[in-house]
Structure formats: structure tokens, C-alpha cells
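Predict structure. Chain length: 228.
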Amino acid sequence: MPVASLTSSITSAIGNHGVYAVFLLMMVDAVFPAASELVMLYAGALASGAFAGQHVVLFGWTVPYGFQAYVVMALVGTIGYTVGALIGWVIGFYAGRPYLERHGRWLHLNAERLDRADRWFERRGNLAVVIGRITPLVRSFISIPAGVARMPLGAYTLWTVIGSAIWCFVFAGVGWGLGASYEHFNKDFKYVEYVVALAVVAAAVWLVVRWRRSRTTTIEGNASDPAR
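Prediction complete.
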């Protein structure tokens, strides 16, 4: 099952490319789910020295195992996520709501979800970003709607940094604490992957069925309208 290799793909990427892989994966996660929990867990475990022959290397400098490496990994994750979040904000701000209503399905955004996001930002203001950044799955769907809602960039950036820092430092800290026990945790985590895989497949089927029904309804409506 391809999704079952998610863990090994992510851990291999981080093991081979270290902080650069963490930066890129967290940047992607800001606009589309990329298993940021696992990314930061593994980053923290790597910082603890749990994996023989793997080191935290930043611009050619090998960071000593321990607290220094942990801070570097958590900061890189925070910066990567913030960069991705800013990209998402820019997409939402300049693409605008009409464009996203037409094409947002590829990012799992539609008119209903955009309306929900507008109400979310209206009710909670700046807290909407912080709460969203520390909420699984939701955290990947905050960036673009924030741009659509014209949330001030300064406030958006500040609260994104705070929320993503909490997320990255906590999960990297858990991975650092697990240390050598990570391999056992990683083995148990594979069962979660199967659940995720089933959820992804179910969501994909639901989207296809919904799209086909919508298309059929549109075609029938056009055919029954004599003015067309």
C-alpha cells in the first residue's frame, strides 16, 4: 500500500537531507497536509542522536546532539512553516475569492468552506490563526482563507510564528524525549497510516462522486432551460 510508506519516505528524506527536508516539508504543510507531526517528531529524535550515522547539519556545520540540535530543528520547522503560510496568504490575497470558488477544489476549498473561514476569522480575530496553527489538519487550511479574508499581514505573520513555534517545539521536544525509543514508536505509528490511507481514499471517492453529481445536475439544468 503506497500510503503505508509515508513514514519511511519522510524519515528517509529527513535522514538524508536533515534541516533542509524539515524546512521544505513544513513549508508544504502550511498549505497542504504533509504529516507535520511526524516530521517534527523525527526531527527531534534525530537531534537527540537516536540514529547512528545521522546528524543535524546546517550550512556545513554539524550541530552537536542534544539541546542545540533540538533548537535548530524546531526553529527550522517554524521558519519553514511560516514561509509556507506567507505563500498561502499571498495566494489567497491576490487570487481572490471568485478564483478560489472556481478552482479551490484542488486545495479542498469551496464556497462553503470559505464562508466558514470568514466567520471563523470574524469571531476569533487573531486567535483564529493561533488556534488554527495548533489544531491538526485545520492548521493546513488557514493560510489561503486568511489571505482571502484580507487579514493584516503583520498580525497574521506574528500569530503564525507563535502558533507554528508552539507546534514545532512541542513535537520536536516529544521526539527528542523519545530518543532511542523512536524506532518502537515508529513501528506502532504505521498502524495509524492505514487509518489515514483509508480516510484519504474515502475522501477522494466522496469528492469524485460529488463532482460527478454536480456536473450531471448542471448538464440537466442547461438542457431543461430553453433560453440556453
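Summary: Residues 182-224 form the longest helix (43 residues).
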